[in-house]
UniProtKB/TrEMBL annotation:
This is SRPBCC family protein. It comes from Pedobacter cryotolerans. SUPFAM superfamilies: Bet v1-like (SSF55961). It comes from the Bacteria.
């Protein structure tokens, strides 16, 4: 399994960050420009990644003020799990961590791990802008 992580510290309470992340409608604000055809509800989202694939995800697990896990609703080219965790920071704010776990063979790992890391980093930085 390939695990890709990106974290950001926010000067906001955990419940506010969690509430934003638990609604997939808000995730459109976190996506890079190469994502289009976005469609979402609170629990499901579908979108197209330019020059790659169409992806549909749904929330599979919610732990209030702790984590949200989304998984594909249709069989993707490889198994993938998208997880957001929130925990208190030392400054009284929140550390939001985006964790992408993907079952990649060596060839796919070489091709996909860079773009997946870039996506995770982009989303955590956009979270800082979107939720303030």
């Amino acid at each position: 399994m390939t695990v890709i992580e990106s974290a950001v510290e926010l000067n906001l309470p955990i419940d506010k960050v969690y509430h934003f992340l638990e609604d997939l409608n808000n995730h459109q604000q976190l996506m890079p420009e190469n994502i289009y055809n976005w469609s979402s509800t609170a629990d499901e989202a579908s979108f197209t990644i330019q020059n790659m694939a169409k992806l549909a995800i749904k929330i599979s697990s919610r732990v209030p003020n702790s984590e949200i896990i989304a998984v594909p609703t249709e069989k993707p080219p490889f198994d993938v799990e998208l997880k957001w965790t929130v925990e208190p920071s030392e400054n009284g704010g929140t550390i939001a961590k985006h964790i992408i776990t993907a079952d990649l063979n060596m060839m796919m790992k070489m091709l996909a791990s860079g773009p997946l890391q870039k996506l995770a980093d982009h989303q955590t930085q956009k979270l800082k802008e979107a939720i303030v």
